[in-house]
Amino acid sequence: MKKAIFLWAILLLFLSACGPSAGAPPEASNTPLFGELTFAGSTTVQPLAGALGEAFQERHPDVRLNIAAGGTRVGIQAIHDGTVDIGMASRALSAEEAQGITVHVIALDVIAIVVHPSNPLDDLDMETLAAIYRGEVTNWNQIGGPDLEIAPIARETSSGTRGAFDELVLGGEEPVASGLLTAVTAGDMAAMVATRPGAIGYVGFGNITSNLKVLAIDGVAPSSETARSGEYPLVRPLSLLTGPLSQPLADEFINFVLSPEGQQIVEEAGWIPVR
To answer: Mind listing the pLDDT tens digit for each residue in 70-81?
Structure first.
């Protein structure tokens, strides 16, 4: 519990440091806009950016959006290189990564630990979760489940979800479990867990599907309420990134995302709004 509260305090500091200045939410522009905005980065943020982009284009039909993915690392590098206007990240940036980048936190995400629906377990503690991905616990019967080999699944290394999981659960180390499987996207992760009775994986809160079983961690189920209170330990920021070579049009898009209309879309998409 102390660790969860500490992590939440760090996240609040991150939000205050990187988000827009306090006060009234930014107003979305009604001035006619035109041009093209390019995006790259987190596969978790990509569908949210797409939903926000559709609403933005309803206001500004002369703006074209090109929303690619590639993973958080790709988005960060693209902003450093000036090859896109907006990067997408699903974890906090390191001090080195953030140099020259403006981070706009647009939502909070809960990382949910998911298993096959047939798994009888309802709860794991953080130590056991880490032990599974370190290869120290290899069969569900070691922790009160069936006699079934555990099939841990991780995201690929460029994924922000992977980076956040490794930091929060493994203390920044990489998973080394024997037979570790890799999912390229959040959709791949959900499909792999749903079709393997021994599987365990993790997805963003907005990527939970009905054919997955969500586990509580240390007795706390993931939800908007437990994320905000700091009770649930696996919480991360979802951000848009801009740099010195980003077009001014990028700021117009981010103002829309952080406006009441944009934040309502964030909530309707299953994420936790920051305003």
So the answer is: 999 999 999 999
